[in-house]
Write a structure and sequence with these properties.
Layout: H1 10-33, H2 46-65, H3 75-80, E1 89-92, H4 102-110, E2 118-123, E3 140-144, H5 161-171, E4 178-181, H6 199-214, E5 221-226, H7 228-243, E6 253-257, H8 273-276, H9 285-288, H10 291-297, H11 304-307, H12 320-326, E7 332-338, H13 344-358, E8 363-368, H14 384-399
Parallel strand pairs: 3-4, 3-5, 5-6, 6-7, 7-8
Antiparallel strand pairs: 1-2, 2-4
């Protein structure tokens, strides 16, 4: 049973046992890491293998005691704090009722989801617009953080967004500021059921509209998301492309980093990356436990998790007659996958879908050899992490050349 040890004193007992078990496993990890054939990936270094084992073990605690890794900042608390300006905090107004349309509006009605104000953070904080319009041709990145839709934060400190946004600014010289958009996190039993689909999607669409209202030209806005944030970035772009609302034009580009593009595993054959990379990816429990899927569904039919392009745009259960028309009109897209992650095959399927819709020349697929899931959030995963950001910078130059 998931989250059995979420309350005290069971939580404390579990964590003590967990620490002791890790101490007991360290000698075994040290021995096996010294033998390349026994590493999750032969090409990994001794140091990288040890860190991966530690992360993998730590991730397993999430589904026992709860999500300890930045389960989301309270925007009201941040807004009221003395450090709000120091972290680039801003409020983002909700969408108008007339801007929630189509299948997303139908899902919102089923799940009783409303558009509400959300929050975001400017990187660096000194570049928060503060009422000033951007330069005429200024390019900006709207970043959407990962966390399986159930944890994480756009806040600069303590969450997955900080390393990604700082990496983008460090290596993309043409980008002077990044806006990290927060969104409502989903939950389900044994926790209170909150924020099912499309709550998070409505929030990041609001973040995109916020940038447009500031004066950024849509063609100069690049949507970027990693992991579950890549899922939302994909859905945001799909929303703008399909609905063609005057207030929500199509963005200039889309960057998907280890995007989670199916929440029911359909790429699961014996030779699939889901099987062959199972030992080199730490994110597997988010799929096998089904917690994210249940949390997103809310009152929607269970089949929706694998048949909705808004939730699982790379699912093999999508109707091909729908898929071949779905991505027509998408902007230039850059997809980054890790060669060692379980979602690699799904990301290849997504690449193929997009290329069918917009042409091969508008979709770039970069598979980073032996990389595990979402390495851009890991400052220690070098030099591959920096190389990804440099490649993104080159791609941005190509988009705007």
């Amino acid at each position: 049973m998931s989250f059995f040890f979420r309350t005290q004193p069971l939580k404390a007992v579990y964590m003590i046992c967990f620490v002791l078990s890790v101490l007991g496993r360290i000698p075994l990890w040290a021995i096996t890491a010294a033998i390349p054939a026994l590493r999750p990936r032969n090409a990994w270094s001794y140091h990288r293998t040890l860190i991966f084992h530690a992360i993998n073990a730590f991730m397993s605690t999430f589904f026992q005691v709860g999500f300890m890794y930045s389960t989301g900042e309270d925007p009201e608390a941040v807004a009221a704090s003395s450090t709000a300006s120091e972290v680039g905090f801003v409020w983002v107004e909700p969408l108008e009722e007339t801007e929630v349309v189509g299948e997303v509006a139908e899902a919102a009605e089923v799940n009783n989801v409303k558009a509400v104000k959300t929050a975001g953070y400017w990187y660096p904080p000194s570049m928060e617009p503060n009422g000033q319009h951007p330069a005429a041709d200024e390019q900006v990145i709207l970043h959407i953080h990962g966390g399986g839709h159930v944890m994480g934060s756009a806040h600069p400190h303590g969450g997955p967004a900080g390393p990604v946004c700082s990496g983008l600014l460090e290596h993309c010289a043409q980008i002077k500021r990044v806006f990290s958009c927060g969104y409502r996190l989903a939950s389900s039993a044994p926790y209170p059921s909150k924020n099912p689909f499309p709550a998070g999607l409505l929030d990041v669409i609001s973040g995109y509209k916020y940038l447009i209202k500031l004066g950024f030209k849509p063609q100069n806005i690049i949507i970027c998301g990693d992991s579950a944030g890549g899922n939302l970035a994909m859905a945001l772009t799909l929303y703008a492309t399909l609905n063609k609302l005057p207030s929500l034009p199509i963005p200039g580009g889309l960057v998907l980093i280890s995007a989670s593009v199916e929440w029911e595993i359909t790429h699961n054959g014996p030779e699939s990356s889901w099987k062959t990379n199972a030992c080199s990816d730490f994110s597997n429990l988010f799929f096998t436990k089904g917690y994210t899927a249940r949390s997103l569904l809310g009152n929607l039919a269970p089949a929706t998790i694998a048949t909705s392009p808004w939730i699982s745009p790379a699912s093999l259960k999508l109707d091909h007659s729908v898929v071949e028309k779905l991505f027509v009109g998408f902007p230039m897209t850059y997809i980054i996958a890790g060669g060692a992650e379980t979602a690699r095959d799904a990301l290849i399927t997504l690449r193929d879908h997009l290329q069918e819709g917009v042409g091969r020349d508008k979709v770039i697929y970069n598979e980073v050899k032996d990389a595990t899931h979402d390495i851009v959030t890991m400052d220690w995963y070098e030099p591959e992490r920096s190389e990804i950001f440099k490649d993104i910078a080159l791609w941005i130059n190509k988009v705007y050349s």
